[in-house]
């Protein structure tokens, strides 16, 4: 069994696409997912399954559509991929600290994609970087560092230039999900 993290796009944002997480856990258990846990209301789901990412993505999207009437794009990462994201931030501690001192809200984010963007689309998106809005793309993960705020940022607002659906999580959320993965692994080892 593989530990996966499913990240739902556009759930419980601004009063739209409301899903109660306890109900979502129950729905996903009906798919045969095991040890289903959620974190906060924005659609962060930890679970175990023996199925592949592609099959799980389709099943979860279809289940949400059937049960809630919501078309939410789902991005999936294995626990190993999540651990790699949080252990290998491409930004130096100094840059993160500088941004954290000036940012209104969270300064460090990762946009998670189902596939790596093309070089052409990467270049279109990275054209919006500047000294206050930084980005480094590692495969399917777009690391974002803001010295002001992700809200109303040119970089954040132009993720669509990648031409691949993305869901964005702040660093604290990713760290909490990483911690939940470690807790599950610890429980399984006993």
Q: Could you describe the 3D structure shown?
A:
The protein is α+β, with helices and mostly antiparallel strands and 190 residues long. It has 2 domains: 2-83 and 177-189, SP0830-like domains (Alpha-Beta Plaits), CATH 3.30.70; 89-170, Alpha-Beta Plaits (2-Layer Sandwich), CATH 3.30.70. The protein is built from 7 helices and 8 strands. The strands form 2 sheets. It has a 4-stranded antiparallel β-sheet with strand order 2-3-1-4, sandwiched between helices. It has a 4-stranded antiparallel β-sheet with strand order 6-7-5-8. The model has no long low-confidence stretch (mean pLDDT 93). It comes from Lysinibacillus agricola. This is DUF1697 domain-containing protein.
Radius of gyration: 17 Å
The main sheet orders its strands as: 2-3-1-4
Mean pLDDT reading = 93
CATH architecture of the largest domain: 2-Layer Sandwich
Domains, number: 2
Number of strands: 8
Text of the CATH class of the largest domain: Alpha Beta
Q: Name the helix and strand elements from N-terminus to C-terminus, one letter apiece.
A: EHEEHEHHEHEEHEH
- How much β-strand is present in the residues? 15-25%
Helix percentage: 25-40%
Tally of helical segments: 7
Tell me about the largest β-sheet.
4 strands, antiparallel
Coarse structural class: alpha+beta
- Ranges where pLDDT stays below 50 over 5 or more residues in a row are none
What's the overall geometry? Answer: globular
Instruction: Determine the N-to-C terminus distance.
Output: 16 Å
